[in-house]
Design a protein that fits this description.
This protein is α/β, with parallel strands linked by helices. The protein has eight helices and eight strands. It has an eight-stranded mixed sheet with strand order 3-2-1-4-5-6-7-8, with helices on both faces. The structure holds NADP nicotinamide-adenine-dinucleotide phosphate (NAP). One of its GO terms (cellular component) is membrane. This is Short-chain dehydrogenase.
């Protein structure tokens, strides 16, 4: 074996994922990036539109690329925010609204679960003596998966679906076999938040909140967010084990607890 350690990831072209890929590269890991646009930090880029089901995606090419590699982990960093709010009377608007919910479910949940299922055999066969650490699968989740904020309920539903899938994974694999992680990054100043502010109705509470946070400079930077996520994934073993199958709040450094 070459001693190379590989990370597979999506969502590395922009936002939090881009900064995370930069950190991963700086720390000498090799990267397989699945996406629609390169970030410049990948060693292997496979063009992949996560709106497509896996049957229409280059899974065979990915399998060929993964063969024989020591894989440390998989990070599903991609995500989309669907249209927030819809006019009750305009049929065309309603149609676009529900189409956008369906696409968000595909990107935020189905594609993640499908890719994880297909690459699990490669991740689980990593233990060839080169890598001592327990491999991980992680996705960027959201607090809205467990605590739906007004306006973000349907986005939250897509994140809740993926969170539940990761909970199921954590029952299939013990934490010392495969650590299964759902990570809320915090509220981070990226295109996703800017798009909500610029393209949604000004009457929505979430738009007012984001605008206010931007004005008061209260949003995390993508760099700061990636820093905390990287630290958690690559050097905080005890915290990772504790977060197996749960929602980890990276901005607070703790696992989400349901309020009684
Ligand atoms: N920002 C926040 O405050 C916040 C809070 C909670 C959770 N999150 C979650 O954190 C993750 C990253 O968010 P972000 O704020 O960094 O978002 P972002 O800046 O909008 O970046 C989204 C990433 O997802 C990729 N992506 C979206 N649709 C795709 C598709 N069909 N095929 C391939 N890639 C696709 C984008 O690639 P393209 O360049 O190809 O579009 C981009 O790399 C998301 O899952 C988001 O839900 C963010």
């Amino acid at each position: 074996m070459s001693g190379e350690k590989w990370i597979i990831g999506t969502g590395f072209s922009r936002g939090i994922g881009y900064e995370l890929a930069k950190k991963i590269k700086d720390n000498k890991y090799k990267i397989v990036h699945l996406g629609r646009g390169q970030c410049g930090f990948e060693d292997i880029f496979i063009w992949w539109d996560l709106l497509n089901p896996i049957s229409d995606s280059p899974i065979l090419e990915l399998s060929k690329q993964l063969y024989g590699k020591s894989i440390v982990g998989f990070i599903y960093g991609a995500g989309v925010m669907p249209i927030l709010g819809v006019s009750e009377s305009n049929r065309m608007e309603k149609h676009l609204f529900w189409q956008s919910q369906s696409e968000a479910m595909r990107v935020n949940y189905f594609s993640c679960a499908e890719i994880v299922e297909d690459i699990l055999p490669f991740i689980m066969s990593h233990n060839d003596g080169d890598i001592k650490d327990v491999p991980f699968v992680a996705h960027l989740s959201s607090l809205s998966a467990v605590d739906p904020f007004p306006g973000l309920e349907l986005y939250g539903a897509t994140k809740a679906a993926c969170l539940l899938y990761f909970q199921w994974l954590s029952k299939r694999f013990a934490m010392d076999e495969l650590t299964c992680l759902s990570i809320h990054p915090g509220t981070v100043h990226t295109d996703m938040v800017n798009n909500v502010v610029n393209s949604s109705s000004k009457d929505l509470e979430i738009v007012r909140i984001y605008k206010n946070m931007i004005e008061k400079k209260e949003l995390m930077s993508p760099q700061a967010s990636a820093e905390t996520i990287y630290k958690f994934l690559f050097s905080e073993q005890a915290k990772k084990e504790n977060a197996h199958g749960k929602l980890y709040l990276a901005d607070k450094g703790e696992v989400y607890q349901h309020s009684k």
